[in-house]
Design a protein that fits this description.
Elements: H1 4-14, H2 17-38, H3 43-59, H4 61-64, H5 71-88, H6 93-101, H7 113-126, H8 129-140, H9 145-152, H10 156-176, H11 183-193, H12 202-214, H13 220-225, H14 236-245, H15 252-268, H16 281-292, H17 299-310, H18 317-326, H19 332-348, H20 350-359, H21 366-378, H22 382-387, H23 395-412, H24 414-422, H25 431-444, H26 446-454, H27 460-476, H28 478-486, H29 492-508, H30 510-518, H31 524-552, H32 555-572, H33 574-581, H34 587-604, H35 606-615, H36 622-638, H37 640-647, H38 656-668, H39 672-680, H40 686-702, H41 704-712, H42 716-719, H43 721-734, H44 739-747, H45 755-771, H46 773-782, H47 787-800, H48 805-813, H49 823-837, H50 839-848, H51 854-867, H52 876-882
Amino acid sequence: MTPDHELLRQYLEENAESAFTELVHRNVDLVYSVALRMVNGDRQLAEDVVQRIFAELARRAHYLSGRPTLAGWLHVSSRNAAIDIVRRERRRQAREQEACLMNEPPTVPDVNWEQLRPVLDEAVAWLKESDRDAVVLRFFQGKSHREIGEALGLNENTARMRVDRALEKLRTYFSRRGVTVSSALLATAISANAVQAAPAGLAIGVAGHTLAGTGAAASGSLIKTLTAATNIKLAAAAAVIIAAVTASTVSQQKEIAQLNKELGSVHQNPSAHSALTLNSYDDRLRRLLQIAGKNGRSSVETTEDLFPVLASLKVPEIPRLLEMLGKLPKTSASTVVKVALLGNWAESDPAAALQWAKAQANDPNRGDYFLSVLMTLSNKDLAAAWLNLNQVDNAATREKIAANLLARMTDQNPASALEALLKLPVGQRSKMLYEAVFLSWTEKDPAGAAAAALQLPASVARATVLATVAATWGQQDPAAALAWANNLPANAAHTTAIDEVIKALGASDPAAATSYLSNLPNGSQRNKLIADLATSWAAIDAPAALAWADASTSGQAHDQAIEAILTQISQTDPASAAAYLDKVSAPNIRKIALPQLAKEWAQSDIQGALAWVQSLPVSDGTARSTAFQNVLDTWIQSDPVSAATYVQTMTTDPNFQTIATQVAKSWATTDPAAATKWTEGLPPGNIRDSALLSALSSYASLDPKAAWDTATALPEDDYGQNRLRFLSSIAAIWSDTDPAQAAQLLDALPSHNTQGVSAAMGVTAGNWLNQDPAAALQWINSLPPSGARDRAIAQVVTIEGQNDLATAFKWARSIQLPGPVRKGTLVDDIVVEWARKDPAAATAAIEAEPTMNGARRSQLLNLVKQNAPNLSANSPSANNAETPAQ
């Protein structure tokens, strides 16, 4: 059987997609089974993990090809990816766990698989890499000791001993977690249960999707050589763009209907398009557009459907089809077809395809065309693809292509790749590009990458690179990485590098990490390292991490470590985290941990989280109320009626007003009408009105007219002045989209001197001035003297003060009433700014003010003198500043 590294080499050097497909078929069951356990049996999430892992394998193939086997890497990567996905899918966990019980594999006699299953992958990840490779090959992939020896470069006896030692380490690990089992039964249990068959067709779909995402070239010749059994017809470079272009295709069917009509017009009026030979082109083009325009299709499915048509094309036909597409309306479907055609064309004639992409100067999708062409070209001529990178004018697309090309260069010659990166303009040397080079380099040669990183100029880029080297090296050889990081100059980069290595060491050898930290002096750096170690250690053995933190840390370091560990535990076992917190009295820990735990627990078990929060002592104060609110926020998203009904039973709670207001606000974001109606049923008074205002504000953000109509219908006898407050708040929010309408509604309100109406007019003035200054100024001038008018004028002063200080000065002087807008402060601020820019003009304007009294004039002229940069004491203006004008 061809070794993994040889298949990767074929994929990299020969663009052999069949080699990558074989890798997927060979390893998909392993990845799927690890993922399935980690996501508690949710097959859809497990398939998402599989997609992610094989996409990552393709992306990192250039440095993974040096490994004798991929088994260990696939296992630990699958586990990490699954943990990440589980954290983001917590809200559905309870339902998923129920489905998991229906799909679990049979239990091996005398061994409780349900005890082993939750921690199996955690235990395997805990093993060092050489042991992990041996275990996965033996018990997950069913290899013989001879085959394991061949894969790892060992003889058969040595391979057998390594497996036995690794199995004993696993047994010890399980024993520490309270699961007692013999090595023999453990081996039997893992072999029987660890791997399940992935769903039929998953390997084919993953291979296609991954190859599509890596930008590998597609061609007619490739299509012809793929086996009929798999029936995979993929254009990988094209599919990169297809995935993005087809992301929003709500109106594609309308687009296709219009394109069909256009094609019919071309066909019926050939004289208008004499440059084209229509014959079968319009039929094939119509077919391609119909496929690209189908709703609800993934990029993989679209690509597979396109290629039976594309495979029938000859190279000279492609530019003619592109020419026809250019005469049709631009749609997402036509862009997909153009990209697919370019991928084929670039395989046979990249220069011509690149020239066509260059010519599309006014096409907003030009960057997508370059991506398709250059990624295809890079498979044959990496240097040529790099030289043409400057043709890409879209910065994001250029960065994406450059990162891919640099990773490939690094695999061939890291120093040359770095040299190419450093020749780019400074503005183009992004973090992504540095990581593309040094991530690959460190995997292959960590010491060489570290030495090269230190030669970079002292900058943010070097700090980023050193962190990348430390993190990657720390996963391979934490002891060597730590020795290197310790010798770095004492600066921020040194601190970051140590931090990254400690994180890696905490996941593989926490005892060594604690030994290192024990020799550090107390301080913020040590505290941060302790918290980071606690986080990574808790991921593999939370009880041990807690025991260490309680026994070996104190003060702030202890609090940060406990918080980090509890955060980690709460994501997988909130009940255990709560049990620990019940014994913690330190307020610094409780005020942070209680709300966080409540939020995590509510994702999977709202009623359990609610019961726990209710049991917390009132002395927890704000931490308790915040925890309760976190549970309610989650509950409202899933079942707002039940949550709101529950809150109505809490009228005696001291935080009832805050809770009811937050419920109304959250509910109104999804069903504002129902939330508003609910608030009307609360006890009359401040509690009801506060909640109603919150609901109406959320309502106005979604539908201001409906919110206004609702507030207008409120009986004035029940709500009094608060009704005016509701209306003014809605108008202020409405002014974001239609300030003229908001101004008209505010004008009609009975009073402009209430605080709410006055504030709303100020907001409306500011929004209107930014959209239509002339109309806004006309409205402000028409307002009668009031606090509302003065607030509007304050907005004028703020905006005009950025460009026209003379106008801002006049407006500020026109404020008439005492109140929240301090006329004197506004005028002073304008004069100070004006004095710095044009003291002569400021002095002239002050002296020309006919209604200003002498004392005020003298005060402002003194402000000019104090802030003017070049105004001498002997100048006429300066002398005038000393004498109040008459």
